Amino acid sequence: MSENRLEVRKTYKLLMNGAFPRSESGRTYEVVDAEGTFIANVAQASRKDLRDAVVAARAAQAKWWSQSAYNRGQVIYRLAEMAESRHDEIAEAVEVCEGVKSKEARKSVSRGIDRMVWYAGWTDKITQVFGGANPVAGPFFNFSLPVPSGVVAAIAHPALSFEGIIDMVFGPVAAGNAVVLLASTERPIPAVLLGEMSAVSDFPGGVLNILTGQVEELAPVMASHEDIDGFDVGHAPEAERAALISASAGSIKRVFEGHGNDEATAMRRMRTFIETSTVWHTKGQ
Amino acid sequence: MESLHSQLGGLQYDAAPESAAIANIQKEYGLFINGRFTSPADHKTFSTINPATEETLSMIALADTKDVDAAVQSAKRAYEKVWSKTTGAQRAKYLYRIARLIQERSREFAVTETLDNGKPIRETRDIDVPLAAAHFFYYAGWADKLSHAGFGQDPQPLGVAGQIIPWNFPLLMAAWKLAPALAAGNTCVLKPAETTPLTALLLAEVLQQAELPEGVVNIITGDGTTGVALVEHPDVNKIAFTGSTGVGRMIQQRIAGSGKHLTLELGGKGANIVFEDAPIDEVVEGIIDGIFFNQGHVCCAGSRLLVQESIAEDVLRRLMRRVEQLRVGDPMDKNTDVGAINSAEQLARITELTAAGEGEGATRLTSTCVLPSKGYWFAPTVFTNVSQSHRIAREEIFGPVLSMLTFRTPEEAVQKANNTNYGLACGVWSEKGSRTLWVAERLRAGVIWANTYNKFDPTSPFGGVRESGFGREGGRQGLEAYLNV
User: Do B126 and B160 lie in a common domain?
Assistant: First the structure.
């Protein structure tokens, strides 16, 4: 390849309903690397974009949950395959965005992909692990099933641009929820790549929606939106968190405040966005 | 439609009153803090009345901010010094003792509850009190098995739990709150509802008899201000609340950012869905149980009846005949089906909402039963010609008022049932098991009763989705609310 060849740059857009639109507002904002060098003008999602994403997520969630648990596991695993094959590209984006050494970036991406595989295996275990039969006194077959809360919004880890979003996306998604993720404002590129890969991984459009934009503009809308069931604020700016939780009370959202990417935290997040639905079924002749 | 009057209208029952003598209610009660009752003279007091007679039963201490602090400090001390060092096996034995003591004094509890709450003695005797004992018995067994509960090898308690309970099932809600909290190793500050403090105070006596260590459970009576003080106390690690969605929302807002753990069991507008193939006589009983049990003061009440169009007329005719047969009146009478409305305030709310139902154009059918002259009463009522936008189809009435709607297809039934911000409970009636499960799978609700309604069991998780709250009470899942997992 000639050294003079001009690279073909990518336009980074939103992921909504399985498509890649620009912001309806026409706005973009400049994203720079760790050194301050221009990377791209990234779509700056508006409140309207967020509301549209929620509509898409609500519709997709029903489809996603109606697929078999086995199938949902395969779809998430497929995404891990896609990510593995684009490991270099993601690692490079992580390196540029986070300003870490290449080796560190590669390790971080590997951990993220491995965690995706972990979640792929959860889809058809959740019912057995969290649900069960209950020995009630009376002529009933009584059983509890874990079911998804519905639509979960999440504010991405500001620094860990790829690895840091895996739990908050795939915890809820593995449990049958649809997710609207607001990517790290400063380091959105790896999240956008994940979105691109998800579009070729057999997810029904709208299960994963990834917005890029400003936290202070979009997080309060997530909190007050009445058709969002759960909200992951663990990585929202400390100063905003109480206000976001308070606004979430408007529709009694399930709020997750945990951080860290250990397994216990991952389990706690998953349980936060799972509901127990208990059925009393009569027995008789 | 044929006359609403019962074919059996001529049948009379003799009164069969339970004796109130066993209740032994004291003239006044202090707060139960650190294992002892404070002197009522040290507090402002308020009265608790019998809603069936409007007579004052007792004067109750009103806990102010200082009292709340004393209770929380007592719980904190007990947690740090005693309860966190008490083995699971020991905690279990205390809980077993409590269960047994409730059983021993069950009639006293039932009578006291009926006097203070207004619900029929048949229900307190057969449901509230036995279930309360069963809850303690069930969670007792978990206390020394927490590492097998699926929350990791060594799940830890949260610390001090502030628990606020409603007036509709006073003792039972106290049991739902205290039993899992104590089993998991927390200490508690329990605030009973303003209008129904007596059985919680009787439970305090039981805790003394059980020799539960001082301060492990503190019971503070009061009003909304007491609850707010408890919610906002910095040394409370967990809030568990059962009550209205409005108050639940306020609590979630108030503790935002404090790091306090929260579970909410809030309101509901349960759909009771009847398919044309359902066994119709059982259906009628199920509808009655769904909405008139406990005067409809039930968060999971089946307050929206959805009947398949082809059988709607027949169901309504049979339902109204049955409604006419409901015996409304003296809660202490063993034959009473529907007792007193718990308070003047609640009666006013039911009256206002039913008036809105008529105002918005629904057709009101009300039992012709004779209501006592004293006390708070509301005759069982069914609305027809209800549209989904009517307030009586959307708002929780929390009274003996049913709104009837119809549907044609299973899809439409599901769509209508889910057309609410609530999601606590639903009923499904059909002989076809595959259909009830198909519907159950699509209902957004925490509890689904198939061919039954309003059944409860300590092993069965209870709680809502959406604006009916989060967290579960009962079952293995109920432990999670009190563990740091």
Answer: yes
